[in-house]
Amino acid sequence: MSRSQSELSLTQREILQLVIFRTKNPKSPTFFGNNEYIGKCVSVKPDTVRKSLKELKDLGYIMEAKDEKGRRHLAYTGKEFAPIIEDMRNMDKRMLKQERDNCLRDLNYYKHELELAQIRIDTLEKDNSTLNNKLFYSELQVSQLENLFLSQGCTKEQIDMMVKQTQRLQV
Hints:
The protein is mostly helical. The chain folds into 2 domains: 10-76, Arc Repressor Mutant, subunit A (Orthogonal Bundle); 95-166. It is 64% helix and 6% strand. It is built from 5 helices and 2 strands. It has helices at residues 10-22, 35-42, 46-59, 93-151, 156-170; strands at 62-66, 72-76. A two-stranded antiparallel sheet has the order 1-2. A hairpin with a 5-residue loop joins strand 1 (62-66) and strand 2 (72-76). The radius of gyration is 38 Å and the shape is rod-shaped.
């Protein structure tokens, strides 16, 4: 049953599961925790617990009674609902352990891959820095050569023509 199809909210299902858990012992078939206690167990405010319990009673999921000391007792009626936490007693433990081991192996593999990627990044950053330095010094040399030619009386156009002729000869 999907969450949108359920008539119960997650909080209401958590409260139901708490009541069921606390009443499993045949010696105490009812649960008499107050709203503050239930709120701490399911991480909601007592007012939310009060509203949820009222709705659960109206929908027929729990019954409420008072004892001679005036304490409220809650009991699960047995009406079916989609639990949040499944009963794991009938699960194949070996399969779960194998799945856990596979996930841990994948985790270690991805950690190793991350370390290798970080080393690769560091290497590429060093290479990039080296190439940027070489480019800077090459541009500095070209600028100095241009200044030398210009100081010897060559024009920009003549320098460009010399560069083009050199490029044609290298091809």
